[in-house]
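Known limitations

Files may contain more than one protein. Parsers should not assume a single record per file. Below, a two-record file is shown to illustrate correct handling: read the sequence, read the token line, then continue until end of file.
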Amino acid sequence: MLPPSDAFGAAMASHGVGSGTRVVIYDKFCNNWAARLWWTLRANGFTNAAVLNGGLVKWKLEGRPVSTAAETPSPGDFTARPEPGVIVGREPVLAAIGDPNVRLVDALSADHYSGNPIGVARPGHIASAANLPWLEVA
């Protein structure tokens, strides 16, 4: 789910991100891709990032400035520092099933969670996970 840390770090540095940089992320849908980049930054030890509330859609609706000019930032000094515990594997999830002190949350659509009558691949969820579809909180 995550790119290799060294490749991610190089990509972020090439886009001008480094220590001391404030990153504001947006996309043109409902910020699901922006949230994914925020999470990837966080998983790599970068905490000075935020997701733009409402994304590009809201920005444009408010009549704020936009540009089609290509930006060429100076390279940054981004260093990926993977954060233990931000990403977990199979064993911690298996251990969490049924543990009253851990809440597993399934962010997929409700039809994936409960089984889909129209046949979308892989319906179902991890045992004891609660369903909170990401579109309901986007």
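...continuing to the second record:
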Amino acid sequence: MAQLIFGLLLGWGVAIPLGPMNLEIIRRSLRYGSLYGLALGTGACSADITFLFLLSMGALTILKYQLVLQIVGVLGSLILAYFGYCALTMRSRMRTSVEQEVQETYPLFRHMAEGYVLTFFNPFSILFWSSVSSQIAINAQSGHYAVLYTGMGVLLGTFSWNIGLTTFIHFTRHRISENAMRILNIVGGLMLMGFAIAGLYKVII
């Protein structure tokens, strides 16, 4: 039970703070529908589970090498900048029916894949999981199924936040006007660009 609660807190810790993933979930939920925001968030949850598994196996000790951390950080910042560019250049039209959403966007699995990539290469996600690596290593030694229970907790924490956020947007998106959507796209795009610059600064300076 302690490992499950530990994982739950980790999941909430990485999912709840306002960052690139939450911004993108909100933006896609408003543009395409909550199902697509949920798909993006599911990809992010999968990336967090991957981080947990790699850390518990000691595979991310390679990030202790400054050059490796810089390469991954630069790549992640470029990915954030790309998503920011997409947000700034796309048309901000609201979708009112499921059929329109399916016709005017790409398949759900691609949204999931993008969520995975955006989270896995996000410099802030890397820094978060690196910062808790020692606690995870200690927790992994506390029992044969410690990693499994911790993983279940992380999945529960990240996915519960994802469902809560997209559900809230689902019931409020009809109140947002076209002009507000344009503003949200611009602000979201600029913030993603800002996260990219900040991430680049953190791994290089």
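Parsers that stop after the first record will miss the second one. For reference, the second record is described as follows. Residues 92-103 have pLDDT under 50 and may be disordered.
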